[in-house]
């Protein structure tokens, strides 16, 4: 995995203020965006992650590769102890993505979050640096690029012609 590179210019945007890091998930073959992944650090070495993928990219592993890449970067570069995901219990695709990326379900937070004006339960998933994770991305599953900061990027080493 390539490390995040920083130019001489100061970072800009949300990431520059240290409140969050937005990433775009890019289809390696077509060089088009197919999703988004964000990381928002919190106190005590924790961070919240969130992601979505376009319908055309679902089921291809791009979000899982993104979660692995950004989580590894967060452990190595930000020295975070615990990235967390909050997933609605009915969202089986997101649950599958989280588990394939090495996240483990830790419990249900009842009425944790307001979504569409309603209080919703969320299952909490977490990943620790000591958890066994295969950091190698699945081939043909996209690349991750940071959306903030000059010349700043994080890339997963994925060949562009592989089937997804």
What distinguishing features does this structure have?
17% helix, 164 residues, 7 strands, disordered C terminus, alpha+beta, 34% strand, single chain, seven-stranded mixed β-sheet, 3 helices
Description:
The protein contains 3 helices and 7 strands, in the order H-E-E-E-H-E-H-E-E-E. The chain is an alpha+beta fold and 164 residues long. A hairpin with a 4-residue loop joins strand 2 and strand 3.
How do the helices and strands line up, and which of them pair or pack?
Blueprint lengths: L12 H4 L4 E7 L4 E10 L4 E8 L8 H15 L5 E6 L4 H9 L3 E12 L2 E9 L16 E4 L18
Brief account:
This protein is 17% helix and 34% strand. With 164 residues, it is α+β, with helices and mostly antiparallel strands.
User: What is the overall number of helices?
Assistant: 3
Strand order of the largest sheet: 5-6-4-3-2-1-7
Strand content: 25-35%
Please give the alpha-carbon distance between the first and last residues: 20 Å
Helix/strand-derived category reads alpha+beta
Compute the average pLDDT: 77
Low-confidence runs (pLDDT<50, min 5 residues)?
Answer: 1-16, 147-164
Helix amount: 10-25%
**Element-level helix/strand string:** HEEEHEHEEE
Shape: globular
